[in-house]
Amino acid sequence: MRFLARRLGLYLLTAWAAVTLNFLIPRLMPGDPVELLVARMKGNVDPAAIDAMRRAFGISDANLWQQYLDYLGNLAQGELGRSITFFPAEVSTVIADSLPWTVGLVGVATLISYLMGTSLGVLMAWKRGTWLDGVLPAATFMHAVPYFWVALALVFVFGVTLQWFPVSRAYGLDVMPGFTGEFAGSVVYHAALPAVTIVVASMADRILGMRNVMVTTLGEDYVVMAEAKGLTSRRVMWAYAARNAILPNITSFALSLGFVVGGSVLTEIVFSYPGIGSMLLKGVENEDFPLMQGIFLVISLAVLVANFLADLAYVVLDPRTRQESE
What we know:
The protein is mostly helical. Helices cover about 75% and strands about 0% of the residues. It has 15 helices and no strands. The protein has helices at about 1-30, 35-40, 45-55, 65-75, 90-125, 135-145, 145-160, 180-215, 220-230, 235-245, 245-260, 265-270, 275-285, 290-315, 320-325. The longest helix has about 35 residues, at about 180-215. The protein starts with a helix and ends with a helix.
C-alpha cells in the first residue's frame, strides 16, 4: 500500500518534528524550573538537593546536542521528567492519572456528537423543504456559541437553579473509587452536564458541515443514476450520497479525536473536572514547564495517530484511494 506507506513516513517525520520542538521550546523560554521550585519552598533547600532536582528535571551543563540525545533516550523509556506542581511526582504519572477522565468524558461525548450531528446533517440535506429546515438557524446559532457559555448556562439552570446535577468533581465525596455500580453511577451522574455541554456545543459544526457537503453531493451524476435505477431512498441516501459526502467529515472527526487527549479545557475548568485540561491549567498557573511539555507532546502524538486512522478510513471508503495505493 504505497499511499499508506507514504502517509506513515510523513507522520513519522512530523512526530520527530513535534518531539524536537517539544524539547527546544521550554529551553528557549526564560526561567528555570528548579529556581521556581526553590522559590516556592522559600529557599530552604540544601544545595545537594538542588543539584538532585536539576538532574531530575533533565537540566545539566552539557551542550544542547547532548541534552537532546538524553531527552530522546528518556522519552524512549517513557520518562517525561518530574512535575513542579505535583513534585516529586513524575509527569507520566500525572498524565496517566488524568488522561482516563478526559478520554472517558470528552471521547464519548465527541463520538455521540459526531454520530448525531452527521446523521441529522444527512437527513436535513435529503429532506430539504420540510420541518427539518427549522433546525438550521438553531445549529447556526449554536455554532457561534463558545463552549464555556454553554457550560455556564447549564450550570446555572440545571446545577444551581434546579439542582438536578452536580457542578463539580468527577464523582461524589461519599463514594469510594472502585469497580462498583455505585462508583460508576456517580461518575456518570457527575459527567452528565460536562458531556451535554460538549455534545451541544460541537454537534452544530457536524450538522452544518455534513449538510452542506451532502447538498452538493446530491447533484452528482452517480446519485441521479442511482435514483433512476429505482433504488430505495434509504439506499441512495446512505450508500451513495452520504458515503461520499462523509469523507471530508472524517478528517474533521479525526482532528476532534486527536484533541480529545487535550480535553475541552474550558469545560473541565468550569466543572472542576480532573482531566488533562485541568492539569494543563495548573501547569500554566505554576509555570510547570515539564508538565506542559509532557501534555503538549501527548496531544501532538494523539493528533497524528488520529489522522493516520482517518487515512485508513479513506482507503476503505474511497475506491480512488485504493486505486492510487495499488
